[in-house]
Amino acid sequence: MMKNKKWKEFDKLTYRCYNNIAGLDSDDTCWKHAFDLLMGIVKEERKQNPDFAKELYLLDDETDYMHDTVEWIEDCLDETDMKEEYQQLLEMCNELIENFVWSGYTGSDMKFRKSGALRMLKRTDEAVQFCNHWMNKEPENIMAGTAYVYALIDAKEYEKAKQIIEMFLDDDTECSEENEIMFIAASRYYGAAGNKKKQKELDKIIKAYDDYIDDKMMNDWLEGDDDGEYDFL
Fold first, then answer.
1. CA 113, CA 161: separation in Å to the nearest integer?
2. In angstroms, rounded to a whole number, what is the distance separating the alpha carbons of residues 8 and 93?
3. Nearest partner of 186 among 214, 209, 212, 158, judged by Cα
4. At residue 212, what are phi and psi to the nearest 5 degrees?
5. Closest alpha carbon to 57 in 44, 48, 68, 41
6. Among 78, 96, 183, 189, which residue has the least CB neighbours within 10 Å?
7. How many CA atoms are closer than 13 Å to the CA of 192, on its beta-carbon side?
């Protein structure tokens, strides 16, 4: 169990963060303060143990799940995004990406957030460059491909965006939990490229899949089973 007294301060700040969400505390600076404190604690712990929480998910394991750090980080990023504080979101993503090891595709959510923050900050060229590098390292990662498509749309590089879409989707591809994000990006692409007919076709497919999932979840709930696989057949 970690003995750093700053964990208590972190717990107090995160308590304030959730009070802020509930409308019981109007000071939303607690989110950034808690994030900075947590990153400082991690660096201090690594002075004693260089292997401390090398991967983000290990933060909870190595602190005996006393602080719910990983869940709080997700909430912090969501809250920062919702408040449209994109520069702060970008800085948080960069710090997390740089300070933790990401095995395989485990960093996809963080990288997707980073690319989105760059786009919202109108740093389009940086977003394109970042996503291109990410895609080159993980060419089969649909989240990398989707982020790249959005960046290319912003850059008005429509032909390249279409090429990326076609790497993951063709006319016979069915919408599923794994590829819905690319269907949504493809709809955005065809709208931006002026092909409203194709955009409507994709929107119809997406809606049919979402309706299927809604019905499936309702049926599972009525039957007392929420562990079903939601493949679109």
1. 19
2. 24
3. 158
4. -60, -45
5. 68
6. 78
7. 19
H/E element holding 219? helix 196-222
Which pLDDT score is estimated for 209?
Answer: 97
Task: Give dist(CA 109, CA 14) in Å, integer.
Answer: 22
Section 29-38 average pLDDT: 97
Amino acid at position 138, single letter: E
Average pLDDT, the chain: 93
CA–CA distances in Å: residue 119 to residues 45, 113, 141, 165, 172:
34, 10, 20, 19, 31
Helices 108-120 and 142-154: crossing angle, nearest 10°?
10
- Which H/E stretch holds residue 147? helix 142-154
Count CA atoms closer than 13 A to 148's CA, side-chain side.
Answer: 28
Higher pLDDT residue, 25 or 220? 25
With CA atoms as reference, report the closest residue to 116 among 83, 82, 150, 77.
Answer: 150
Residues 154, 119: Cα–Cα separation, whole Å: 8
Per the listing, tokens 């004693």 go with 48
Average pLDDT over residues 138-151: 97
- Environment class of 207 (CB within 10 Å of its CB; exposed 0-12, middle 13-18, buried 19+): exposed
Residue 113: which residues within 8 A CB-CB, separation 6 or more? 77, 81, 89, 93
Which sign, positive or negative, has the C-alpha torsion 165, 84, 75, 3?
positive
- From 148, 172, 176, 175, select the one nearest 162 (Cα to Cα): 148
